[in-house]
From TrEMBL:
Keywords: Membrane, Mitochondrion, Mitochondrion inner membrane, Repeat, Transmembrane, Transmembrane helix, Transport. Belongs to the mitochondrial carrier (TC 2.A.29) family. This is Mitochondrial of phosphate carrier protein. It is found in: Mitochondrion inner membrane. InterPro entries: MCP, MCP_dom_sf, MCP_transmembrane, SLC25A3/Pic2/Mir1-like. It comes from Podospora anserina (strain S / ATCC MYA-4624 / DSM 980 / FGSC 10383) (Pleurage anserina). One of its GO terms (biological process) is mitochondrial phosphate ion transmembrane transport.
Length: 307
């Protein structure tokens, strides 16, 4: 297998990074879309903890009993669309910014200070990804928190735009940044470090493709747990701020301060059990799917700076 890989011409430029972006789009949209039922229950627990107070399994039972099993797929349209866009920019951007750091610093310095490169590259990639994600995430939360608001992505998006304007889609942009940027930084740096530790013991070049997938799964699972814990308070605030429109004249910053005071530290970790399960699972499968799709597309020209 190793000999075959070495004889293939490596891609570069747009041909390479477009494949990274497509692989990222697929891995994020598929995993987030598949876990929509978990996200629905997690969001309900965050928005109405007094009613949904029986944990994740109990929350599933409550939603099905009160609204039917179909309610668990509420928001699947904006989830899939939003994370397709976000995944392409996140993973594609991460690879691109990592390469730019290598070009600027030189390979040796980039490798020496690789933790900083991972953190900076993931943060910049996530910033641009969130610009695309925010309107669709706002629509998803509105649909989940108000099941009768609209029948789906197009209806919900159009209603919010007409009634509240473009600003409503970005009311949660601050919380999304505070949630997603630390989340993504933790996600990528922990993944890279865990995978690097494994490959120091079991060299990647000697490992079968199937075992590399297992490494991606395991590293992604650990990374997902770390990312969930780091970003949980902002995730709860994001759910709260998108639940309903703000009062007339009430700015986003004022609303965020008000929500933070109401929640407190303990309240900000409401729903952490469901989110640990969700984020750990989806991150593990994201990195596994991403790695396999990159190989299938021949996108093997990415620079690795791990020791």
């Amino acid at each position: 297998m190793a000999t075959k890989t070495e004889t293939k011409p490596q891609l570069s430029g747009v041909a390479l990074y477009s494949r990274f972006a497509l692989a990222g789009a697929i891995c994020c949209s598929v995993t987030h879309g598949a876990l929509t039922p978990v996200d629905v229950v997690k969001t309900r627990i965050q928005l109405d903890p007094a009613t949904y107070n029986r944990g994740m399994i109990g929350g599933f039972k409550q939603v099905i009993k009160n609204e039917g099993a179909g309610a668990l797929l509420t928001g699947v349209g904006p989830t899939f669309a939003g994370y397709f866009l976000q995944g392409s920019l996140k993973f594609g951007g991460y690879e691109l910014f990592k390469q730019q750091a290598i070009n600027y610093l030189g390979y040796e310095n980039a490798s020496k200070y690789r933790t900083g490169v991972y953190l900076a590259s993931s943060a910049m990639a996530e910033f641009f990804a969130d610009i695309a994600l925010c309107p669709l995430e706002a629509t998803r939360i509105r649909l989940v928190s108000q099941p009768t608001y609209a029948s789906g992505l197009i209806g919900g998006f159009g209603k919010m735009l007409k009634n509240e304007g473009v600003g409503a889609f970005y009311a949660g942009f601050g919380p999304i940044l505070f949630k997603q940027i630390p989340y993504t930084m933790a996600k990528f740096v922990v993944y890279e470090k865990v995978a690097e530790a494994v490959y120091q013991v079991f060299p990647k070049k000697d490992m079968a493709d199937s075992m590399q997938t297992v490494v991606n799964l395991g590293s992604g699972l650990v990374a997902g747990f770390a990312a969930a814990i780091v970003s949980q308070p902002a995730d709860t605030m994001l759910s709260k701020i998108n639940k309903t429109p703000g009062a007339p004249g009430e700015g986003t910053t004022t609303r965020l301060i008000k929500i933070a005071k109401e929640l407190g530290l303990k309240g900000s970790y409401t729903g952490i059990g469901a989110r640990l399960f969700m984020v750990g699972t989806l991150t593990a499968f994201q990195f596994a799917i991403y790695g396999d799709i990159k190989k299938a597309l021949g996108a093997t020209g990415g620079v690795e700076i791990g020791k």
